[in-house]
Design goal:
Helices cover about 65% and strands about 5% of the residues. It is elongated. With about 210 residues, it is mainly alpha-helical. The protein has a two-stranded antiparallel ribbon with strand order 1-2. The N and C termini lie far apart (about 105 Å). Among the domains are: about 80 residues, Four Helix Bundle (Hemerythrin (Met), subunit A); about 40 residues. A hairpin with a 2-residue loop joins strand 1 and strand 2. It is built from 9 helices and 2 strands.
Length: about 210
């Protein structure tokens, strides 16, 4: 077994372990940290498969940005964990059934002829001038250009839907109209009241 194969199986085992801990650990902060370890292990696996660009993007985008946001939300918000786990046992049979079906589908697919040892592609080493970024771009924007555009449209619709749901009006929330604030006049905010002067005579105030 070569060094790359040993590294591949090592990081794959770490990734499976970390992914299992993400869904089994009770502390949400520890769960997020195990998810960071899962992403980092996946990036290392991609490095062994000569996918350096995907590995770097995974570390920069998910580990460096998305997971920092997750940790910020988990640690700064007051999350009632007991309330979140209250309905866990009720959905446990359905979740177990879905998990069993997914495992059965994976076993059915992996034991077929499509994933046999004779049909699997043989990895070939590349020289120093090989750029998997260029190779990924040429494949993504030629053979998979339509799925790429469809995914972009779906993400655009999701962004617009999130904005619309955020800006919806609720009766229990107070809103400020920026146009009303800009067009306000001095007379609408400040009222000058004239009062007669008062003079003090023999210990009493009189006007």
């Amino acid at each position: 077994m070569t060094f790359l194969q040993t590294a591949f199986y090592f990081f794959a085992a770490v990734m499976v372990f970390a992914a299992t801990m993400v869904i089994t650990v009770r502390n949400p902060v520890k769960s997020a940290l195990f998810l960071v370890l899962t992403f980092f292990s996946a990036a290392c696996v991609w490095l062994t498969l000569e996918a350096e660009f995907l590995a770097i993007v995974l570390v920069l985008v998910y580990v460096g940005a998305v997971m920092v946001l997750f940790l910020f939300v988990v640690m700064m918000l007051d999350i009632n964990l007991a309330r979140l786990r209250a309905g866990f046992t009720g959905y446990l049979p359905i979740g177990g059934l879905v998990a069993v079906l997914m495992v059965a589908e994976l076993i059915f697919i992996l034991t077929g002829d499509s994933f046999s040892a004779d049909n699997l592609p043989r990895p070939e080493g590349h020289g120093g001038s090989y750029s998997n970024t260029r190779q990924l771009g040429s494949v993504l924007y030629t053979f998979y250009v339509y799925p790429f555009e469809i995914a972009a449209i779906i993400l655009l619709v999701a962004i617009i839907a999130a904005i619309v749901l955020t800006l919806r009006k609720r009766p229990d929330t107070k809103y400020l109209n920026p146009a009303d604030q800009v067009s306000v006049r001095r007379e609408d905010r400040v009222r000058l009241v004239k009062m007669p002067a008062e003079r003090r005579h023999s210990g009493n105030w009189s006007s």
